């Protein structure tokens, strides 16, 4: 990953450019809160917005994008099919419903939100059809571990271009990261700041002082240096701006490794091998 500025991108396996920094809107309230957050991000130069059907705020994301001066074609927009909608026909319907709420006629990236046993292969087949129809620029998965990917490969005609996973200093999953890189699947982080718990880690506090940055900036820069696309969530204008101020410093390789060594396989979210929703 060539880390240059907020407009920097990675090339997905099909040649689509994906901005390596974006705004996530998990738990951002529908209505004014999400409209404001997306507007702040676009004003600050972000060009990547990540939502999901289950977040319940696709409509507000769509409003913010539609009313902003930035052209839709210059915004990389992601949403995800929820578990209750998985399956071939139901995924096609869910996709149309998401497009309607987002007020757009295409998506830049559509993800299978979780590997629902017995359903994700048919869900993937629906994504492949939507991709073949030109309604999505790229398709991918979320929360898929290596064995889920290997199982999907058995029937997939198109390899996922992205895998969005929980990723932070306490959950590095280096083997999975390596596996995705080997298969040209772009790794993307959700919950990069460990739902705020990262701010309490002494090593991260020390290194933030060393580089004269915030703990959040340190971690987000670390994500990028690990080759991982990242989508920190905030609803505050100052935090959204601060989270994008990552390009006037670089973490030494030694410190990148020190942060990675914090890994303890500890999740702040659900386990992809053991979820019931």
UniProtKB/TrEMBL annotation:
PROSITE patterns: ALDOKETO_REDUCTASE_1, ALDOKETO_REDUCTASE_2. Keywords: NADP, Oxidoreductase. Substrate binds at residue 113. Pfam families: Aldo_ket_red (PF00248). The keyword Transmembrane helix does not apply. Residues 30-263 form the NADP-dependent oxidoreductase domain. GO terms for molecular function: oxidoreductase activity, acting on the CH-OH group of donors, NAD or NADP as acceptor. Belongs to the aldo/keto reductase family. This is Diketogulonate reductase-like aldo/keto reductase.
């Amino acid at each position: 990953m060539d880390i240059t500025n907020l407009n920097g991108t990675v090339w997905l396996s099909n040649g689509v450019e994906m901005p390596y920094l974006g705004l996530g809107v998990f738990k951002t309230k529908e209505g004014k809160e999400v409209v404001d957050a997306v507007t702040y991000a676009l004003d600050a130069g972000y060009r990547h917005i990540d939502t999901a059907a289950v977040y319940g705020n696709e409509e507000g994301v769509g409003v913010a994008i539609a009313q902003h001066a930035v052209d839709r074609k210059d915004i990389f927009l992601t949403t995800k099919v929820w578990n209750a909608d998985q399956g071939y026909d139901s995924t096609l319907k869910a996709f149309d419903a998401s497009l309607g709420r987002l007020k757009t006629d295409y998506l830049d990236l559509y993800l299978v939100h979780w590997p629902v046993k017995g359903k994700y292969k048919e869900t993937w087949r629906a994504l492949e059809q939507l991709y073949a129809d030109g309604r999505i620029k790229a398709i991918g998965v979320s929360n898929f571990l290596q064995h889920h990917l290997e199982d999907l490969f058995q029937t997939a005609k198109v390899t996922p271009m992205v895998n969005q996973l929980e990723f932070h200093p306490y959950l590095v999953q280096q083997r999975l990261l390596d596996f995705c890189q080997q298969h040209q699947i772009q790794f993307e982080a959700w919950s990069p700041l460990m739902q705020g718990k990262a701010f309490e880690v002494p090593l991260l506090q020390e290194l933030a002082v060393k580089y004269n940055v915030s703990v959040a900036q340190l971690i987000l820069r670390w994500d990028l240096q690990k080759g991982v696309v990242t989508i920190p969530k905030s609803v505050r204008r100052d935090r959204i701006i601060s989270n994008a101020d990552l390009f006037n410093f670089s973490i030494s390789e030694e410190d990148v490794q020190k942060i990675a060594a914090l890994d303890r396989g500890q999740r702040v979210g659900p386990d992809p091998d053991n979820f019931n929703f």
